[in-house]
């Protein structure tokens, strides 16, 4: 289901999603004190609360959303890293995937989301690697997180461009989002999120992998029909 969710959410919703449990968490968020609302750091934070208090039918699961949203982050912990260019910025646009699914299917759904991310980067013909994050590198709500890292020749290393997390029932319990089984029993859904495309970092990956010696940039075949050309001419010197 394609949606454009709000970029402002109430403090209680950010709390229920598990992103402001500590003082350190607050250093990464933009908070509007007068309105008592947060600017979202990812569309996930506003999509999850959409079904707060809802009881879905089992046959509705998985209920999947694809959301386009502007995201805002203070990047307080970056300590001066990547401050030039558009790799790490305070405001950026991003496509996010979100799924409410049956608890018995959440591992399978997580694999599906990762495979979907991989297909996107494969379509662009950009080299990438898949990385399973250690517990200390994951966000608080996540039980399992898998990153996609694209190869950036200009930096001679892979950089994170996509991430897929399974939060199981952590967020669902706080939001009281449930489903009714065929037997009439209510259970908490499992909630998962994944990055579709972060616009800025995707542009970086395309430019670094497809720029030619004359300064021109070849357009990935998957995008040529949308742009109407095969190459963006450039100048050297």
TrEMBL record:
Which InterPro entries is this protein grouped with? aa-tRNA-synt_IIb, aa-tRNA-synth_II, aa-tRNA-synth_II/BPL/LPL, Ser-tRNA-ligase_type_1
Q: Which GO terms describe its cellular component?
A: cytoplasm
Q: Name one GO molecular function term.
A: ATP binding
The record's principal subcellular location, in a coarse class, is cytoplasm
- Annotated localization: Cytoplasm
User: Could you say which EC number(s) this protein's record lists?
Assistant: 6.1.1.11
The signal peptide annotation in the UniProt record is none
User: What is this protein called in UniProt?
Assistant: Serine--tRNA ligase
């Amino acid at each position: 289901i394609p949606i454009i969710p709000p970029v402002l959410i109430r403090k209680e919703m950010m709390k229920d999603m598990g992103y402001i449990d500590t003082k350190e968490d607050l250093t990464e968020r933009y908070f509007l004190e007068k309105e008592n609302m947060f600017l979202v750091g990812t569309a996930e934070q506003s999509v999850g609360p959409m079904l707060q208090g809802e009881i879905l039918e089992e046959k509705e699961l998985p209920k999947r959303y694809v959301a386009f949203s502007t995201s805002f982050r203070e990047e307080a912990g970056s300590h001066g890293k990547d401050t030039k260019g558009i790799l790490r910025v305070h405001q950026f646009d991003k496509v996010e995937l979100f799924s409410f699914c049956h608890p018995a299917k959440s591992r399978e759904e997580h694999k599906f989301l990762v495979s979907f991310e991989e297909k996107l980067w494969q379509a662009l013909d950009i080299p990438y690697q898949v990385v399973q994050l250690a517990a200390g590198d994951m966000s608080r709500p996540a039980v399992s997180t898998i990153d996609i890292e694209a190869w950036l020749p200009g930096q001679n290393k892979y950089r994170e461009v996509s991430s897929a997390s399974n939060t199981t029932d952590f967020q669902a319990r706080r939001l009281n989002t449930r489903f009714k089984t065929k037997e009439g029993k209510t259970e908490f859904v499992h909630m998962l999120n994944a990055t579709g495309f972060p616009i800025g970092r995707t542009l970086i990956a395309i430019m670094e992998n497809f720029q030619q010696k004359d300064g021109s940039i070849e357009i990935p075949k998957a995008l040529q029909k949308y742009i109407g050309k095969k190459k963006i001419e450039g100048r050297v010197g």
